């Protein structure tokens, strides 16, 4: 039986409403599926982020402790170097004073003459050894008795007249007398001074090699600190997941309403095909409900986008944590390398301090001899 034109129009309208409802339902299902996939992935991302944050915090604490230790060692090296420089300057000042004193002392010894009768015994008692040649030593050994003091030699009046005559001549010619300086081994003094100078130059070389240690360590530590990752922008993982769950629940309700509307439209079409006649008000109600479907789909799309944005936040935080972890691992490697370098610096600093001790030791030996020279006086 053929349908009336009005019935055909109603059927066409109902079919259109079913088609729109089905399309809206399919779009809603696709959006919900996408949102569910993103939400499930977010759970894994959240787990990874929590694990990464824990490692970043642990390594950050280790790096901070390493930096504190490195800064402490750097401060120790700087303090030891400053102390060494001060000691070196002090000893340079003392050395300059004693050098001047030595020059004055040698000049004083050079002005004090010694009678020829004292030559033999003075060569044996010289603090720096005798400067006589071997012939002079042989001659002196024949003109005095071994073991006798200079005073006993002067008082000894025995001997032939020829020796006494020569001795009298020498005693009368004071220009031929030796001075106390002639009995000082100036070559030994020069050797000692040259040794001191050589050690001082060597000490300067070591000090020069450590000169940039404080600034180098300070710059290196500053560079490492500046390279440390900034604190990650806090993100509450639980809040992200909770928000996603709330959005997912809302989307599920909206999808359910789309499904109900589709079932309603499909049922109405089947009823119309079975001979049911709908009034104008019924058709308008169905049309109004169908016209609201795009708004519902739009809300689903917004909710899906919000869930994906939440996941993007997790991914961003995860990538930032991974980057921070990579930087921190590199920083630990750099600190290990810096530790080796600082060990070498400490060894070099120790060499410098040993050099100063050698310098002081050699100078102290010379100073002891100079003190002995100060007590030498010409016999009257």
TrEMBL record:
Q: What terms describe the molecular function in GO for this protein?
A: molecular adaptor activity; protein kinase activator activity
- Where does the protein principally reside? cytoplasm
Alphabetically sorted, this entry's keywords are: Autophagy, Cytoplasm, Membrane
Q: Where in the cell is it found?
A: Cytoplasm; Preautophagosomal structure membrane
Family statement drawn from the similarity comment of this UniProt entry: Belongs to the ATG17 family.
List, alphabetically, the Pfam families matched. Answer: ATG17_like (PF04108)
Disordered, as annotated region: 124-171
InterPro entries, sorted? Atg17 (IPR007240), ATG17-like_dom (IPR045326)
Q: Which GO terms describe its biological process?
A: autophagosome assembly; autophagy of mitochondrion; piecemeal microautophagy of the nucleus
Lineage of producing organism: Eukaryota, Fungi, Dikarya, Basidiomycota, Agaricomycotina
Return the Polar residues bias intervals.
124-133, 143-160
A GO cellular component term found in this entry reads: phagophore assembly site membrane
> What is the official name of this protein in its record?
Autophagy-related protein 17
- Domain Autophagy protein ATG17-like spans what residues? 25-356
TM ranges = none
Describe the task this protein carries out.
Autophagy-specific protein that functions in response to autophagy-inducing signals as a scaffold to recruit other ATG proteins to organize preautophagosomal structure (PAS) formation. Modulates the timing and magnitude of the autophagy response, such as the size of the sequestering vesicles. Plays particularly a role in pexophagy and nucleophagy.
Q: In what way does this protein cross or attach to the membrane?
A: Peripheral membrane protein
- Specify the superkingdom: Eukaryota
């Amino acid at each position: 039986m053929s349908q009336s034109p009005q019935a055909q129009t109603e059927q066409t309208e109902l079919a259109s409403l079913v088609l729109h409802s089905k399309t809206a339902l399919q779009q809603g299902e696709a959006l919900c599926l996408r949102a569910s996939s993103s939400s499930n992935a977010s759970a894994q991302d959240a787990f990874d982020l929590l694990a990464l944050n824990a490692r970043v915090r642990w390594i950050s604490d280790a790096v901070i402790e390493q930096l504190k230790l490195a800064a402490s060692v750097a401060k120790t090296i700087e303090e030891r170097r400053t102390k060494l420089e001060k000691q070196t300057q002090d000893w340079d000042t003392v050395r300059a004073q004693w050098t001047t004193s030595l020059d004055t002392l040698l000049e004083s010894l050079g002005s004090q003459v010694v009678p020829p009768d004292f030559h033999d015994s003075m060569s044996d008692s010289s603090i720096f050894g005798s400067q006589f040649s071997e012939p002079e030593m042989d001659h002196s050994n024949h003109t005095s008795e071994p073991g006798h003091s200079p005073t006993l030699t002067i008082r000894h009046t025995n001997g032939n007249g020829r020796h006494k005559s020569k001795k009298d001549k020498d005693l009368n010619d004071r220009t031929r007398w030796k001075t106390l300086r002639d009995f000082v081994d100036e070559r030994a003094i020069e050797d000692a001074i040259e040794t001191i100078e050589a050690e001082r130059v060597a000490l300067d070389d070591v000090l020069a090699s450590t000169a940039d240690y404080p600034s180098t360590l300070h710059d290196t530590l500053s560079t490492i600190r500046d390279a440390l990752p900034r604190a990650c922008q806090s993100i509450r993982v639980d809040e992200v997941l909770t928000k996603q769950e709330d959005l997912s629940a809302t989307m599920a309700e909206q999808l359910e309403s789309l499904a109900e509307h589709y079932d309603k439209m499909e049922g109405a079409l089947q009823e119309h095909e079975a001979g049911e006649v709908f009034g104008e008000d019924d058709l308008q109600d169905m049309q109004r409900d169908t016209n609201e479907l795009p708004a519902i789909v739009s809300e689903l799309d917004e909710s899906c986008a919000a869930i994906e944005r939440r996941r993007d936040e997790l991914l961003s935080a995860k990538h930032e944590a991974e980057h921070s972890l990579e930087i921190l691992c590199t920083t630990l490697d750099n600190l290990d390398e810096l530790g080796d370098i600082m060990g070498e610096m400490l060894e070099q600093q120790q060499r410098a301090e040993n050099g100063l001790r050698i310098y002081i030791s050699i100078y102290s030996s010379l100073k002891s001899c100079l003190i002995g020279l100060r007590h030498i006086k010409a016999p009257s």
